[in-house]
Queue: 2 jobs
Job 1
Amino acid sequence: MPGLPFDVLAEPQRRRILDLLREEERPVGELVALLAASQPAVSKHLRVLREAGLVEVRTDAQRRLYRLRAEPLREVGEWLEPYRRLWERRLDDLERHLGTIPG
Amino acid sequence: MPGLPFDVLAEPQRRRILDLLREEERPVGELVALLAASQPAVSKHLRVLREAGLVEVRTDAQRRLYRLRAEPLREVGEWLEPYRRLWERRLDDLERHLGTIPG
DNA sequence: CAGTCATATAACCAACAGGGCATACTGAGT
DNA sequence: ACTCAGTATGCCCTGTTGGTTATATGACTG
């Protein structure tokens, strides 16, 4: 499933979920509260994230604890890599340019 | 328009366009040929990219030369940053783990 | 200015995504 | 077994997206 992580990240709410799980493992209900979203909506996003391998579930009694799996994001990072130089170079240019002003 | 670049990158064809423009400035027709896509489809993607600030156009007679603007990708890179450590750490763990086997 | 090349836009369409509500499932406690 | 908490799923509805074909625009050419 190449490209999948890009699709998944297109959804703002899903990025927020990942951000929350980056801090720590959380049950669905907590995500629902923190995101101020409906429970089914969150469950649906979690399903998508799970199918993309971006989260793992662990069962704890009635609750399901979701944990981040960052590895699929590597693909995004690798795609982005060659661009990084470009936007950094552009920053350098700006800095150099600004440097010429106060002189 | 925060989050916009994420949406834009969700489309594989658009990522390919950016990859092509990363090499050099190109007219629409060239992109059409290289992507084996229809001209209107490509123009549409270019519009989306333009509105997201990811490309710039320059007119050269009848042709429009498109050039990459990587700067908006910075937002993606910054979002991704905290995750990078995680997937790299995970790789370290794996290596360390493998290291314990042969010993 | 008629014709043509390169590109953009319009109109339309099929597919899909994300939200809501209602409901099914699962494990614990009684 | 009944019930409740926590979560997943099904179904419906709506907005959006990406593609297609046909047409408009704009610039050069004879």
Note: The first helix of chain A runs from residue 4 to 9.
Job 2
Amino acid sequence: MEDYEAKFRAYLDANRYRMTPERLAILEEVFQAKGHFTADDFLIHTRQHHPKVSRATIYRTLDLLVQSGLVDKVELGGNRAFYEYFHGRQHHDHLICLGCGSVIEFTEPEIEALQESVCRSFNFRMQSHSHKIFGRCDRCQHDSEPPPSWSPGHE
Amino acid sequence: MEDYEAKFRAYLDANRYRMTPERLAILEEVFQAKGHFTADDFLIHTRQHHPKVSRATIYRTLDLLVQSGLVDKVELGGNRAFYEYFHGRQHHDHLICLGCGSVIEFTEPEIEALQESVCRSFNFRMQSHSHKIFGRCDRCQHDSEPPPSWSPGHE
DNA sequence: ATTAATGCAAATTGTTTGCACGGTC
DNA sequence: GACCGTGCAAACAATTTGCATTAAT
């Protein structure tokens, strides 16, 4: 049994929620996915192995996963939310390419430290933060075309 | 004539768009507003002086203002967008209180500098960025209640 | 047996669009 | 007079919810 599965079961137990085949299937899907995906991506993928799972269950389960701390919900711009597994990884922020939609993760401890000092100066208690940089990645640097049908994919 | 009005007229002219009473009214509303407001806030306020303005026109005009660079559209979390006038002000980022919805602006040149160095290291060309810190402000620090009906209001 | 979870479809919410009419250049 | 902008209502898209049914405990 994978570590994340144990954690999820522990979270469910602690809250008197139940483990179901649907939840397990979605959990596997999420931890298999590399990158940032939408609820719909997970719906499609999960249905390959569990054909009748509903969109509602996807949303409900992703919420649970976020609450349990296993998954991170990220708003990368646009209207839809993206999800990525978080368990076992360090915190990171995102560079988002407006050309191809690719997402690069970065970590910068000095920025984190400065953030904390900003919070201190306002006596603000930070709970979470989101730092996104939009622009053009290496590959898309010379494509002058504006963003096509935009949607951050894998990576 | 205010500076921002001149700028807006210049932008409209340059793009063969027309100045209308509605656009002028919304422009005034936006530059009078202190803080971060939703499209609906502007609809309500604008209607006080211009009763039949439509929601569609608010959205269309806010878009124009954003394109002209006079106004900043910010996603502070949740589903709706917030707008604040930008003209004549320096770039800033946001601390967002999950207790009362208040928004504190901050500027931290060192963070900006570090951002640029992160971009350089990925050969990423930054176009814009969004840095939000969520937590509890000074006043809400000891209220343990979870966020009620959440909506960042005035400053 | 109890009570939570599911699938479905309908409801919600913020925003966008098509279109006929009115106003600006 | 050409054609852009408006209001209105319908259209949209992502997400949420009500409910009767099914399943985990």
Note: The first strand of chain B starts at residue 71 and ends at 74.
